[in-house]
Amino acid sequence: MATVLESLKGINAYPIPLRSLVDAAEYRGLDMTAEATQEVMQTTAYKLTQADLLLWLSLAPDVTQGGQSYSFTDEQRVQFRNRANALYGECQEEGNKPKSIYGYKGSRL
Q1: How far is Cα 105 from Cα 42, in angstroms, rounded to an integer?
Q2: Contact, 38 vs 65, CB < 8 A?
Q3: Among residues 68, 24, 59, which one has the least CA distance to residue 9?
């Protein structure tokens, strides 16, 4: 059976740095060495960690590693953000939802 770390790595083929995975899990109080059972994957901590990583992926740079290129289209980045926001909403996490920005957006005042 896979560990929580392996399960979170499986979100996407993009090479998310191990430090980012560990930081996200520790922030949410998730044990990375635990077995990724159905019960663990249904917890709020797991879902919020997954949402944090999806949000991280939406901002991830395009990279080339070992001759393999990883890049996302703008549409894919929006889908990552939408999936993350859906998980935040499901877990009722308000802190990471984007906030409306009000103000003048023209070139002259």
Answers
A1: 42
A2: no
A3: 24
**What pLDDT score does 106 carry?**
65
Q: Cite the beta strand spans of the chain per DSSP E.
A: 63-65, 68-70
Confidence of residue 66 (pLDDT cuts 50, 70, 90): confident
Degrees, nearest 5: CA angle 49-33-16: 50
Tell me how far apart the 2 most distant CA atoms of the chain are, in Å.
60
pTM exceeds cut of 0.85: no
SS3 3: strand
Two structure tokens written together for 10: 């499986």
